[in-house]
Amino acid sequence: MARTQLSGRQKAAILLISLGTETSAEVFKHLKEEEIEQLTLEIANVRKVNNVEKENIMNEFHQICVAQDYISQGGIGYAKDILEKALGHQKAVDILHRLTSTLQVRPFDFARKAEPAQILNFIHNENSQTIALVLSHLDYEKASVILSSLPQEKQADIARRIATMQSTTPEVIRQVERILEQKLSATVSEDYTSSGGIDVIVQILNGVDRATERTILESMEIQDPNLSEEIKKRMFVFEDIVNLDNRSIQRIIRDLDNHDLQLSLKVSSEEVRDVIFKNMSSRMVETYKEEMEFMGPVRLRDVEEAQTRIVSVIRRLEETGDIIISRGIGDDIIV
Fold first, then answer.
1. What is the mean pLDDT of residues 258-263?
2. Is the entire prediction scored with pTM above 0.85?
3. CA neighbours within 13 Å on the CB side: how many for 82?
């Protein structure tokens, strides 16, 4: 007899058992370590699955896959129309609810599928808050292109709004969606809220060209100096050193405090350490390794402060033109 109520994780475990070991192994390759652990435990707890239960779960999985395919073709509204015609209103709503609850189909799906130029044409006449809301939902590369293409007088205001954006209720999101895209259904998960924040605008600014970044930050510095400084701190992190060219790294090393660099390298990734040591003389590398070994345990706060000082040196060298930090759009053009 089928169990009366199964959790999503239990259904996933039964589905994987039904699919077989080879297919399940392929699925595991796309999961996070925590998800694999949870599913493995759930699979281990499954003792017996009857045919009715297995068939119901397989059917449910198939329905969700079909719905997801419809969404990818034409959005949630399109999927809802097709499913309603095939299965009826209530069944369609149930499937889409499960899909949006488990897969978190995000707002502004239509914008994420469009080209940056199309989105720009779509939103450029909207107010800054609306543009900020849309950009905060796009992938960072696409948002960077659009932000760079907006009028300069708007860029800093929009960047500031993204950085200071708080959670947005589903009602507000749906209202904006209805204005911008009539096809989009109002079936977005009620649990979903939108937030911009400093991390979001930092990722976007990391993708714009240097001139756009400078214009935005200089304007923002006048409007909100504290926010501007906080964004600047996060624009380049210590681990980003691996993305610099060898000449720049060698130039940076000359200006760094040895103790700060040794402190940072002591707890850095192997990749960062290799890049730094590759740009030192063998004698200097040997000295660094010895002094790092004698350093003993270090406090995380001390390491973070040392890395902040290093990042400040890197940003200063970039501002003076001694090094170039690639930022995407237009930065690989040499004039």
1. 91
2. no
3. 17
